[in-house]
Amino acid sequence: MKAFFCCCRCFTRTQLPGADPTRNRSLIGEEGEMGVSEMVKKENGDYVNSKDGAGSSSDSTSGILKNHDFSRGLESWHANCCRGFVVSCAVDHPEGMYDKPVGGYAVCTDRRESWQGLEQDITSKVSPGVAYTVSANVGASGPSDGHTDILATLKLECQNAATQYVFVGRCSVSKGRWGKLDGTFTLSSVPDRVVFYLEGPPPGVDLLVQHVIISRPCPIETGAAGLKDGDDNIILNPNFEDGTNNWTGRNCPVARYESMADGKVLPQTGKYFAAATQRTQDWNGIQQEITGRVQRKLAYEVTALVRINGAANATIRATLYVRLADSREQYVGIANVQATAENWVQLQGRFLLNPSPLTVMVYLEGPPAGIDILVNSFVVKHAAKVPPSPPPVIENPNYGVNILQNAALTDGTNSWTPLGNCTLSVATGSPRILPPAARDSVGAHARLNGNYILVTNRTQTWNGPSQMITDKVKLFLTYQVSAWVRAGRGGSGPQNVGVALSVDGQWVNGGQAEIEDDLWHEISGSFRIEKQPAREVMVYVQGPVSGVDLMVAGLQIFAVDRAARFRHLKKQTEKMRKRDVVLKFTGPGASGVAGTFVKVRQTQNSFPFGTMISRMNIDNEDFVDFFTKNFSWAVFGNELKWYWTESQRGSFNYRDADELVELCDAQGISLRGHCIFWEVVDVVQQWVRLLSDSDLAAAVQSRLTGLLGRYKGKFKHYDVNNEMLHGSFFQSRLGKDVRASMFKTAAQLDPSATLFVNDYHVEDGADTRSTPEKYIAQILDLQEQGAPVGGIGVQGHIDFPVGPIISLALDKLGILGLPIWFTELDVSSVNEHVRAEDLEVMMREIFAHPAVEGIVLWGFWELFMSRDNAHLVNAEGEVNEAGKRYLALRQEWMTNAHGHIDQEIEFGFRGFQGAYEVQIVVNSKKIKKTFMVDKGDSPALITIDL
């Protein structure tokens, strides 16, 4: 959860169990709740170097591996579940086919599984944030004909967590030839154990390794890769060549060093580094004032080489401190990195200064008291503009065509593989129609044949049917996932069943369903891959506990034809959001205006479009200009939340919210109040958590009275208790009735406000905790307790939107008859064109659905969003492709009409609901009148008095 501009969700990630000698390593996946683009992203570890460990091999190029060339036999190496030995340069391998290497080479033989090979523990040799390079000469010998793949892999083991496997590199070798395997890896953190190993050839084929080297990047020379002290660096004395001039300690001493820890800590670049020592608070550190050298409304990039002393690892943060003329202080988080005592790591981030400050300081902080912060180089430069990615070219997308082989199971279980220790068979008796969301996507289709995969003898939750689809998936194409699933008897309580993908071992959510009966249930989800897989993409179905049979029918994965869906939505929008209008002109002389030219222009669509804003934003006049021109509603990112208004008990901060309310009032912008309470314990401030139950009840009442009393009549909506499907802090402490009580009290304190529930993943099939059915049950339960629930908030933090899935969820929620709002909408993609298309999917679905009454985006300005690559406007004010799409849609949903007044002294048109201006010229006089078109099915007859 981000402290600044946070959305209302945080992700958790779990992992599938690790490999064992009975399991094929190539089938291992990772389980979590992130999109593909997030899961494959690695921490930047450039420009990091450390001293080689003890016991390294014969020369300085051996890197971190011991005995890299097997000159000392298999010392430091382990043959994993197979037999290993070393062939010296004087002896040929038994087949005698290989060119004789300069030294010896290792052989792994008697291999019974593809994952068996050669490994070495490198736990003590690797550091987080470091980019390591792998280079090896490898070969294969045995019965295999043609080419054989050899892979380099990392095995990451953590106590009380599942083993994770990280793909490093691969090469294809032919019989009798050495091959060159190259790869790289970076670890964001170091687990309890890190094992590097080589694997891959089929069983029975020997794995040969001549040498393997894992090396760190070379030390950075001054001036390399952006660390040069150039004229564009606004930091003075960035490499400490002038001692600590221009640097000060933030409530702690700082000094320059050539080395520390008896010479074990040396600078990575240049001759010196600085250290902040004797730190007594986590905010103590090293700082430099950059007032006058940093310009407002320009994006800056911060790059620093950092390290710690006094602990194994700790987080270092770069922060911007800003003091304004009105004595206000702002703290802007720039970046953070996991630093260690062993190596220098690179910290990198960006910031934007909005106000005109009295003072600006940039500083490093973060580790607990007593840990030294070391910095070797510090650079702050104007961030270079990155050109946008071109629109992806997707050839032969084959929309609506299932990419799975033998999906109908007419050829038994061919093309399907059991994932783990389980048995697959084909049975009959499943539904013969596609699930609803799939039907809406593919249109006309053949009925299902009733066949299903029966999975028995399951020993793990992840056991189920799987199929490789590596060559079937196209980059940047959004795929819909659909299936019927059912669980057998034997489990206690509801069973969670999901369709998942393993992309190079990284888990991707394809949709989930919770099953607690003996019926077939629909799974509906989606995914997209935006980076070329290095190895493989596998789809599999998993979920019930071990021992419970799994049934899967009609599994479909197909590309979504968004253009066709848009055509349908335009027709739906025409019906839902427009109305026939007849302007009847009256008054003296009206009879003489027949045949007169008339022009109608819509000035405001009545459908609300809003955005999240922050107090920091409104110091930027460019931000305010875009905001006020293009949005009619606003919600505050943090400024109304309890942890912001009362971070310390009895110490209140309403100043930020007051100023945002003042701006919106002046601009006629309506307000959503987000949020009175937040049910998720992780975001409840510490002092509230520590209260006794009686004191907590009193604090809840005080919060309601203070907030709603202060802003009575100002906020049209309130999210009363945020994310009640995902948290239970207040309910667990104060009882079930507390939620309804919050609603009742809020309604008494501000009767004019509509009170909302608000939650995430309701619309995308990605989370069994927040299905439409569970949301409906929660709302009905609150209403039965007398809670005046007036609206349904669907947050809309969505990864790969598919129209029919969203529409079906809204259909279900719509049965309650309450207004639905998308309250925190954002979409994310590195490619601006894909992001724009995702945004269009969401906006068209929302605007076309009769139950939805408003859209609020969760921000639009770069560096002030809760998710990366979600912005519509770049940091320095340039509207990107997503922003252009937003503006184009808003323009599309405005009506302009013109023509001549008929003999009945009327002019008719069909237009969107909202405010209009009509203009005619009578007797050389231009007359302008305004009118409103409200909702309604029959034509609106509007009198225009001339």
TrEMBL record:
GO biological process, one term: xylan catabolic process
Database matches in PROSITE patterns: GH10_2 (PS51760)
InterPro entries reported in the protein's UniProt record: CenC_carb-bd, Galactose-bd-like_sf, GH, GH10, GH10_dom
GO MF term set: endo-1,4-beta-xylanase activity
Pfam families on file: CBM_4_9, Glyco_hydro_10
Sequence ranges assigned to domain GH10 in this UniProt record: 594-889
Domain of life according to the entry: Eukaryota
UniProtKB keywords: Carbohydrate metabolism, Hydrolase, Polysaccharide degradation, Repeat, Xylan degradation
Homology family: Belongs to the glycosyl hydrolase 10 (cellulase F) family.
Name used for this protein in its record: GH10 domain-containing protein
Native source organism of the sequence: Kalanchoe fedtschenkoi (Lavender scallops)
